[in-house]
Design brief:
The chain is an alpha+beta fold. The protein is 53% helix and 12% strand.
Length: 394
């Protein structure tokens, strides 16, 4: 058999031999490409490799391309003139935001009577009239008069069976629980206290004073602390940094100060008592030590980390302050003006709709890319097919 094979191989046309060699090379190349693609898939599924790539990309972001260095000196001189104009633009922008702050103060005074009435309704200090309570919901538009009357009778029957609640119970607690940013701060032991929260107000700094705002949390009398108002003040700056004027992007919060909570004895939810057993090295005796340590609570919001005069903070404190600033800004900009919509969940649905639209746009872009590939006469789907990664036992 070996002789026959050798004979057949010797009688083959040299051109045929070349064809065989080419086919073998192509097959070998396809195997290598397949292995390379498979290795790439496995690498991209490794979170450590992805993190390293992301860090590398972040380092490249904003790095000079070398074009500026290649420009003639006379052109660089003109670019410097443009930078000086940009600095002046930043200072004008700072003045713009100062006037915006003045407008916010002006309109806050116009909003406040409405917010005060909202507070009175929530805490049962004012009972709204039938006219004020009239609201045409979307689903009621298609209901017949007979169906509306039936629904009204059912609601009245339910109201008769229940105790008559005062105001809107747990209004602000429900708002907090409906908003992810705030619900993450809440602990189970915070909820009985926040049931006594009656209102949140925003107070702006007086004219001529440094830019700031204060959040006031108004509580009814309760068994947890004697304060009727808890405050959190945020000091802001609206001027470009001399060392980095191009980073200016509107007012920024520089620091914040909380307040002292006068806790009733045994009711401080920001602290907890733990017991530890300690063994004496020499005698071997064991003793129990009681320690008071910090406890997770929403009310830690009123004791933020202090910013030293040097302005330097450790990473943990910086992270806490960054989250604190975001929460304070969100309460001021969204929660206080639109509290009822966060209570009902409608504001949260609007936020979700925004995210859905972004997702749809992304899907559309992917669809366009697929369509472009299908219309490409040179497109070969087999070349783009990625072989499945091997399953390995961990």
């Amino acid at each position: 058999m070996a002789d026959i094979d050798n004979k057949d191989q010797a009688e083959m046309d040299p051109a045929d031999m070349e064809d065989v060699e080419e086919v073998e090379e192509e097959e070998t190349g396809e195997d290598e490409n397949s292995k390379a693609r498979q290795l790439t898939v496995q690498m991209m599924q490794n979170p450590q490799i992805l993190a390293a790539l992301q860090e590398r990309l972040d380092g490249l972001n904003g790095s000079p391309s070398g074009y500026m260095e290649s420009l003639p000196k006379v052109v660089k001189r003109r670019v410097n003139a443009l930078k000086n104009l940009q600095v002046k633009c930043a200072h004008i922008e700072a003045k713009f935001y100062e006037e915006v702050h003045e407008l916010e103060r002006k309109y806050a005074a116009l909003y406040q009577p409405l917010f005060d009435k909202r507070s009175d309704i929530v805490k049962a200090a004012y009972e709204p009239t039938d006219e004020e309570c009239e609201w045409k919901a979307d689903e009621e538009e298609e209901l017949t008069d007979e169906m509306k009357e039936k629904a009204k009778l059912e609601e009245e029957k339910k109201d008769e069976e229940k105790e008559d609640p005062k105001g809107i119970p747990e209004f602000w607690l429900t708002v907090f629980k409906n908003v992810d940013l705030l619900s993450e701060m809440l602990q189970e032991h915070d909820e009985p206290i926040l049931k006594h929260l009656q209102d949140i107000k925003v107070k702006f700094s007086d004219p001529g004073q440094p830019m700031s705002f204060t959040l006031e949390f108004l509580f009814e009398a309760n068994d947890f602390f004697t304060n009727t108002v808890l405050t959190k003040t945020y000091k802001m700056r609206s001027e470009p940094d001399e060392t980095d004027p191009f980073s200016f992007d509107g007012p920024e919060i520089m620091c914040c100060t909380g307040c002292t909570i006068d806790w009733t004895k045994g009711k401080n939810v920001t602290l907890k008592t733990i017991k530890k057993k300690q063994k004496h090295k020499g005698r071997g005796t064991v003793r129990t030590v009681t320690k008071t340590v910090p406890n997770d609570s929403f009310f830690n919001f009123f004791t933020p980390p202090e910013v030293p005069e040097s302005g330097e903070l450790d990473e943990d404190s910086e992270a806490v302050l960054a989250a604190d600033f975001e929460i304070g800004h969100f309460i001021r900009e969204r929660i206080v003006p639109r509290a009822v919509l966060y209570f009902t969940g409608e504001a949260i649905e609007d936020d979700d709709d925004d995210y859905d639209e972004e997702g749809e746009e992304a899907d559309d872009e992917e669809g366009e890319e697929e369509a472009d590939e299908e219309n490409d006469p040179d497109y070969d789907p087999k070349k783009d097919a990625v072989p499945p990664a091997e399953c390995k036992q961990q």
